[in-house]
Specification:
This protein folds into three domains: 3-119, Alpha-Beta Plaits; 133-140 and 261-448, Trigger factor, C-terminal domain (Trigger factor, domain 2, Orthogonal Bundle); 159-255, Roll (Chitinase A, domain 3). Helix 3 crosses helix 6 and helix 10 packs across helix 12. Strands 6, 7, 8, 9 and 10 form a five-stranded antiparallel beta sheet that branches. It has a four-stranded antiparallel beta sheet with strand order 1-2-4-3. A two-stranded parallel ribbon has the order 5-11. The chain is an alpha+beta fold. The longest helix is centred in the middle third of the chain and has 34 residues, at 274-307. The protein is built from 13 helices and eleven strands. Helices cover 47% and strands 19% of the residues. It has helices spanning 23-40, 53-82, 143-156, 211-214, 261-267, 274-307, 315-332, 337-347, 350-377, 384-396, 402-408, 412-434, 445-448, and strands at 3-10, 14-21, 99-100, 112-119, 133-138, 159-162, 174-182, 188-200, 222-228, 241-255, 436-442.
């Protein structure tokens, strides 16, 4: 097919592609489709395959013409997008279907002209990324941090006993509950229901943070709770008032073991004394802290680079990012994104939630595009030796599942993701080396690394 093409940049990282298909190709496609009609379409008064072409054209008229035009457009776009000379910045994003500007009319005496618009990968020219200066907090592992982890070890090794039937729930008790969010009419929102949810009162390890409201309840009791979440709440509940129904099904208490050498040996046979366990805890906390400080440093460097690197992010990319957040939230409720959206539509929560998510989504995409551009500009690669080394590092960190880790990263897709992570780590190492990290204010371990249990 003979095609002339013209590309012109549009706003918001989209392009307009104008194609001209030679009239000879248009006539050829017209004849091919007409021949197929003649062979397959049954017209009253004619045997199959014997109806004259002019009769078919009169009968199907505009529908036939639209099929010819649609087929030519589809084949022309396929041919253009398969052309390897078309750059990445000129190809449509996988989730951005070309939109036809105006449907052209069929005229076999003229070349066929049409235009489509679609989103493309934004062009990114990274601003200053060397010689920057940011601050990172100063943190030390304290005895309080070690003791807090030791208490957590005691909690995990506690004996759990049922409380008396008429006992009132207290902080520290293990509660089993059913709960659901209610709509304005007091009806359960099915996508926001949980059954047999188990957590420890006082830890707030639950989505709605309703520990205080459950304290005092007795087994078999049901309460309806109304909670308002401030705008600054770090979740999708920010700025919302919700009504919940909670039923307490079981209540248990923990009997904690003594903090001694016997406990250390119960935790793992590699520990002979309580001091061995403490040293291991300090090592783990130090590793967690180093990883978190690295994240903070990189995040603050990227914030500065973002400020100096304008990027026009297309709407389709933002939409996909927000859809990803819906799926992530739905997994927390053990439901699908579609069911969750439907329930929240009934409760009027979608618009506020997506408005909250949008700036975060744009910021995440902006940073990601800069990272990908820098990796490409610096021509960073990952060798098989480096990838295998990362696999062994991950396997060593999970001795019980080491063979499973190695097997998982033999799969092509998993290995491809790991390769990207290795390349990204190289970039972040370069960013940290090429910029200045000044000591910032002193903070506590838990300020940086929240205890998520």
């Amino acid at each position: 097919m003979t095609i002339n093409k013209e590309l012109s940049a549009q706003e918001h990282s989209s392009v307009k592609l104008t194609l001209t298909v030679a009239k000879e190709d248009l006539r050829s496609q017209h004849s091919e489709i007409l021949d197929n009609y003649i062979k397959t379409v049954q017209i009253p008064g004619f045997r199959r395959g014997k109806a004259p072409a002019n009769v078919l054209l009169r009968k199907f008229g505009e529908a036939f013409n639209r099929e010819v035009v649609g087929t030519v457009i589809e084949k022309a776009l396929e041919q253009v997008f398969q052309d390897e000379s078309l750059s990445r910045e000129e190809r449509p994003l996988p989730y951005s279907s070309p939109r036809l500007q105006e449907e052209p009319k069929l005229d076999l005496e003229q070349d066929l002209n049409f235009s489509v618009v679609y989103d493309v990968l934004p062009k990114v020219t990274v601003g200053k990324w060397k010689g920057l200066e940011v601050e990172a907090p100063e943190v030390e592992i304290s005895d309080d941090d070690i003791n807090r982890e030791l208490e957590a070890v005691r909690e995990r090794n506690a004996i759990v006993l049922d409380r008396d039937e008429d006992a009132a729930a207290e902080k520290g008790n293990v509660a089993t509950i059913d709960y659901c969010e209610l709509d304005d009419n007091g009806e359960p929102l099915s996508a926001l229901e949980r059954e047999d949810f188990v957590f420890t009162l006082g830890t707030t390890y639950n989505f709605y943070k309703f520990d205080d409201e459950i304290v005092g309840m007795k087994k078999g009791e049901t309460r309806e709770i109304v909670k308002t979440y401030p705008e600054g709440t770090d979740s999708s509940l920010a700025g919302r008032t919700v009504k919940l129904r909670v039923s307490l099904k079981a209540l248990k208490e923990r009997k904690l073991p003594e903090l001694d050498d016997d406990l250390a040996q119960d935790v793992d046979e590699k520990y002979q004394t309580l001091e061995d366990l403490k040293n291991s805890i300090r090592k783990n906390l130090t590793g967690n802290l180093e990883r978190r400080l690295r994240e903070i440093k990189i995040s603050r460097l990227l914030e500065k680079i973002v400020a100096d690197t304008p990027v026009d992010i297309p709407e389709s990319m933002i939409r996909i990012e927000i859809e990803s957040r819906w799926r992530s939230l739905a997994r927390r409720f053990n439901t699908t994104a579609e069911q969750l959206i439907k329930s929240m539509q009934e409760n009027g929560g979608i618009e506020n939630l997506e408005t909250t998510w949008r700036p975060e989504a744009v910021k995440a995409l902006h940073s990601r595009l800069i990272v990908e551009t820098l990796m490409e500009d610096l021509k960073l690669e990952a060798s098989e030796e480096e990838i295998n080394g990362e696999v062994e590092r991950l396997a060593a960190g999970n001795e019980a599942m080491a063979d499973g880790v190695r097997k998982y990263y033999q799969e092509e897709q998993a290995r491809s993701y790991l390769k990207e992570e290795v390349i990204e780590k190289k970039l972040f190492d370069i960013l940290l080396a090429e910029n200045t990290i000044k000591p910032g204010k002193k903070e506590n371990y838990l300020d940086l690394v929240p205890n998520n249990g």
